[in-house]
Amino acid sequence: MYLIRELREKKEFEDFCNIVVHAYPGFKIETEEQRNKFVEYSMKLKEDNENITTYGLFKDEILIGGMRFFNFYMKLLTQHIKVGGLGLVAVDFLHKKEKIAKAIVEGFINEYKSKGVNMVALYPFRPDFYKKMGFGFGASMHQYKVKPSNLPKGPSKSNVFFIHEEEGDMVLECYNRAYNETNGLMEKELEDFTKLLKRPRTSIVAYKRNEMIDGYIIYEVKPHDENFLISDIIVSHMIYHSQEALMELMTFLNSQSDQIRQIIFNLQDPNFRFILEDPTNGSNNVLVPVHHEGSVEGTGIMYRVVDIDGIFKDLANHNFNNVDCKIKLIIRDTLVASNNKSIVVEFIKGKAMLRNTGDYEVEVSMDIANFSSLLTASVDFKSLYKYGRATLTHKEYLNKVNEIFYFPDKPICLTMF
């Protein structure tokens, strides 16, 4: 009924632009010049970056939907794996409620599954829609609104410098060290940072010693809508490798109290409040009975395993905490038929081995969305069991199964797509 293929001709990109204009009015593609820029950028995108491709969904040769596919490498637990990303999903207003978005997601999953990519990810316009499509919640974003004076003030910020465009490679090197150590981070390229450094309102400030960056913050200064004397700093990224780097960066932000009303941190870190003397956000809201409002939490990136066998092969060298156990894993997947099955996984000193048949110690059952969240360490097995999202045949195995899938760090993603 539908055909999904890469967009080729200028007219197709123009039609896609018209769909995006209505689907995302917040993009403010309003003038003819802005439309032309969007079309030119979209057409040139594939030439500039082979890892980003614009696709269209056609019905009777008429474009009625579109999206972009992204090829990523991601650190999953202790291993680097290929991941497909889906972005800019847009449906023609005349074809809403015709299951076009569902067809787009199915086409996306099938495309990456056919390439041997075993996990995909996206930022949802509606989390409930994608949950039904088998995508599991990732780590939450926490927004902290902090007075500059409420941040730690150390003895020095002498190693903190503004980063210039020609120093983008040093920022990339700092990020890459984090990428190799951090669950969920996706590989970046030098261009990702040079683009940021070209933006007039975006700044990167870094802790730099011995010609090496050991931590940095990416932020923008946002003026108040009605009072030009009031501004906030919005921190979108924060990477650091040492306490010294973190403390000097905090001291830098603390020193802005004469001009800045609030530092707004957007972090996938529920424990950041422990760096603050006052964890409240200035709203003066009190939750029952006496809990002062602190960070605001938001659900964002979602992950989906598209091939269960394949993802365990991706994690063949990962150690599932030295546990010995043989599990029959029953996964419910209503979208990908080959995933809707049971497999036997034997963990030998923490290494996962797939078995076609044979006996097992315990049966574990859940749907693909919750399995995807579990495997990325976005949630622990005990929580899934407690809330009835997973079952097991022998409760005495609860701690052992939880230990198998336990990982100390929830996934962090600093890549928008």
DSSP, total strands: 21
Give me the CATH fold name of the largest domain.
Answer: Aminopeptidase
Shape: globular
**Low-confidence runs of at least 5 consecutive residues:** none
Count of discrete alpha- or pi-helical segments spanning 4 or more residues = 11
- The tally of structural domains comes to 3
The strands making up the biggest β-sheet line up spatially as 1-2-3-4-5-16-6
Q: How far apart lie the N and C ends?
A: 28 Å
Rg from Cα: 23 Å
CATH architecture of the largest domain: 3-Layer(aba) Sandwich
Pairing-aware structural class of the strands and helices? alpha+beta
Helix fraction, binned, reads 25-40%
Name the beta content range.
25-35%
What do we call the CATH homologous superfamily of the largest domain?
Gcn5-related N-acetyltransferase (GNAT)
Major sheet characteristics: 7 strands, mixed
CATH class of the largest domain: Alpha Beta
What is the residue-mean pLDDT, rounded to a whole number? Answer: 96
GO molecular function: aminoglycoside N-acetyltransferase activity
Domain N-acetyltransferase: 2-152
Protein name: GNAT family N-acetyltransferase
Pfam families: Acetyltransf_17, Acetyltransf_9, SCP2_2
